[in-house]
Amino acid sequence: MAHPKMRFAEIYEAGDAWLADCSAHPDLVRQAWWIEALAPIPSGTHWLAAEALLVTTMQALNRIREEHRGPVLADPQLDRAWWLVPSNAADELADVRAVAVRPFGQPLHCPPTGWQVCGRFWLHRPDGTGRLTDPAVLAAAVGPGGYRPHTEATP
Questions:
Q1: CA geometry: angle at 105 spanning 48 and 137, to 5°?
Q2: CB-side exposure of 155: number of CA atoms within 13 Å?
Q3: Which of 38, 107, 109, 145 is 20 to 30 Å apart from 78, CA to CA?
Q4: How far is 33 from 152, CA to CA, in rounded Å?
Q5: pLDDT 10s digit of each residue in the chain, 155 long?
Q6: d(Cα 34, Cα 12) in Å, to the nearest integer?
Q7: Cα–Cα distance for residue pair 124/122, rounded to 1 Å
């Protein structure tokens, strides 16, 4: 007999497949999800995680059109959210006060795309395409004073 939640997960299979493949051990990721545990997926190779307060993230989601959003993971208990951004985004987001890019290789503990696990869920789910949030779009969405375009030279 199939796991009761697996029928719902079929809807999100493309996102789950992409997310699991971001790990060096996709089978272990799927095993964690099967037992309804979070799967540690290291950042760096496919994406980095830009961490922000949950309220900041919710406001930014309202400012970014859906076609420009990449995956966004939320944990209301920790009052945190993580935007998946390109692996080269750390420098571009370094001066943005509202976000902190987690170090290369640090795992992000992820639920599958279709349901909540341990209080974490996807505000904007991975869709299997590999689309990530552009760091310039994220910087502009999190508020004034947080973003300086590269064209502005500092004296």
A1: 10
A2: 0
A3: 145
A4: 45
A5: 455 555 555 568 999 999 999 999 999 999 999 999 999 999 988 999 999 999 999 999 999 999 999 999 999 999 999 999 999 999 999 989 999 999 999 999 999 998 899 999 999 999 899 999 999 999 999 966 443 434 444 44
A6: 14
A7: 5
Residue with tokens 């974490």: 120
| Assigned token pair, 131 | 């689309």
d(CA 70, CA 80): 16
Contact by Cβ (8 Å): 126, 15:
yes
Residue that has been written with the tokens 């966004």 in this structure: 72
Sheet with 100-101: strands ordered across: 100-101, 48-53, 80-85, 72-75, 121-124
